[in-house]
Specification:
With 210 residues, the chain is mostly helical. It folds into two domains: 135 residues, no CATH class; 58 residues, no CATH class. 71% of the residues lie in helices and 0% in strands. Helix 1 packs across helix 3 and helix 2 crosses helix 5. The longest helix has 25 residues. It is globular and about 50 Å long. The N terminus is likely disordered.
C-alpha cells in the first residue's frame, strides 16, 4: 500500500499555469487529508469515476478514430490531472455536506479545466477539438447531468468497484469472477446483468495491469 502523492509535470506549462497548479495541489492535499484519503487504495472510488467519465467517454473514441498524435500523453495527463482535481472537488464538497450530484458536477468542472490546457499539451489541434466537441455534446444534452447525478445504477457500480478491489487483495473470497458477479447482482437490485459486471471486472483488471 503506497501513500498517495500528486506530482505536477511542469515541463510544458507556462509559469502562470505552474503557479495555478501548485496552488491546486496544495488544496488537493488539504482536501484529501480532511476527506480521510491517505493511500492509493483510498482513491479507488474517486479514481474509477474520473476514469469512467474522462477515459471511456472521450479517450477511447478518438483512439479508435486514429486522430491522436500522442496517445500516451493524453492517457497519462488526463488521468493524472482529472483524478487529482476530482478528488479535490469531492473532498471539498463532502466536507461542505453537499449532495452526490454536486460531486458529479465537479467532475465536469475538472474536465473543463483539463481542456483549458489544450494549448499547453502536445496534441494536434484537431485531436483536442474532437475531444471538446464530444465533451460539449455530452454535457449539453438536456437533463443529462441531472440524470447522471440521480443514477442509482452509477452509485451501485462504484460500490461494486470497491468490492472488486477487496476481492483483488483477497482472491479467496470468491471461487471465481463469475461468483463475484453473481454476488454483486444479489447485493444491488438495480444491477441486472452478471455478464456486464464481469466485463467491467476485466476492464478494471486491464487498467490495473497497464
Amino acid at each position: 500500500m503506497k501513500n498517495f502523492t500528486f506530482e505536477i509535470n511542469t515541463a510544458l506549462l507556462s509559469q502562470v499555469m505552474i503557479d495555478k497548479l501548485h496552488s491546486i495541489e496544495k488544496d488537493i492535499k488539504t482536501g484529501l487529508r480532511e476527506f480521510g484519503i491517505n493511500t492509493e487504495d483510498d482513491l479507488n472510488n474517486l479514481q474509477y469515476l474520473i476514469i469512467f467519465h474522462t477515459n471511456d467517454n472521450f479517450k477511447d473514441e478518438v483512439f479508435i478514430n486514429g486522430k491522436l498524435t500522442n496517445a500516451k500523453e493524453l492517457d497519462s495527463r488526463l488521468l493524472v490531472y482529472g483524478m487529482a482535481l476530482s478528488c479535490f472537488y469531492a473532498a471539498k464538497f463532502t466536507l461542505e455536506h453537499k449532495p452526490y450530484s454536486t460531486f458529479i458536477e465537479s467532475i465536469f468542472e475538472a474536465e473543463s479545466f483539463l481542456f483549458s490546457l489544450k494549448y499547453k499539451l502536445p496534441f494536434s489541434s484537431e485531436a483536442i477539438e474532437d475531444i471538446q466537441r464530444n465533451h460539449s455534446s455530452e454535457i449539453g444534452k438536456k437533463g443529462a447531468l441531472a440524470m447522471l447525478a440521480k443514477s442509482e445504477k452509477q452509485k451501485a457500480i462504484v460500490e461494486v468497484k470497491r468490492y472488486w478491489d477487496r476481492y483483488q487483495k483477497d482472491p479467496y473470497i470468491y471461487e471465481s469472477q463469475a461468483a463475484f458477479a453473481r454476488d454483486m447482482i444479489d447485493k444491488f437490485e438495480i444491477l441486472k446483468s452478471s455478464a456486464s459486471i464481469e466485463r467491467r471486472c476485466r476492464k478494471w483488471r486491464e487498467n490495473l495491469l497497464s
